[in-house]
Design goal:
The chain is an all-beta fold and 122 residues long. It has one domain: Mutm (Fpg) Protein, Chain: A, domain 2 (Sandwich). It is 0% helix and 61% strand. The N and C termini lie far apart (47 Å).
Length: 122
């Protein structure tokens, strides 16, 4: 059996608007059932987050909102094996057009390091 890579997460909010965590879950991991993310993202970068390697493929999903749930900013990250990574960002809701999400993945010997970006459009 091939081990699925660890995921190290960096969250960057480049907006002056705070983001509030709406939901967060891990699906399928043999080594972790939860993912601890900050309840509030102010402007800046947050590190020290992530999931250990797993004997099974897994998915990490989380949603932040800038406005009490009227707009949802989500990332779904699927990992499979030592190098398999798929990231799906989504902006939905009332003010979704004012937000842009992005990601910057980097594969290292310890697993994936991914910087997830939240930016307000000018």
């Amino acid at each position: 059996m091939t081990t699925t890579a660890a995921l190290t997460i960096l969250l960057t909010n480049s907006s002056s608007q705070n983001l509030t965590l709406k939901s967060c879950k891990v699906i399928g991991s043999s080594s972790a059932s939860t993912l601890k993310l900050p309840e509030t993202l102010t402007r800046g970068t947050y590190g020290g987050l992530g999931l250990p390697s797993s004997e099974t493929p897994y998915i990490a999903e989380w949603v932040y909102t800038p406005n009490d749930g009227n707009t949802l900013l989500s990332f779904t990250t699927s990992l499979n094996g030592p190098t398999g990574l798929t990231i799906i960002p989504a902006e939905t809701g009332h003010d979704a057009r004012f937000w842009q999400l992005g990601e910057g993945p980097d594969l290292t010997n310890e697993g994936w390091i991914v910087r997830y970006y939240y930016a307000a459009k000018p």
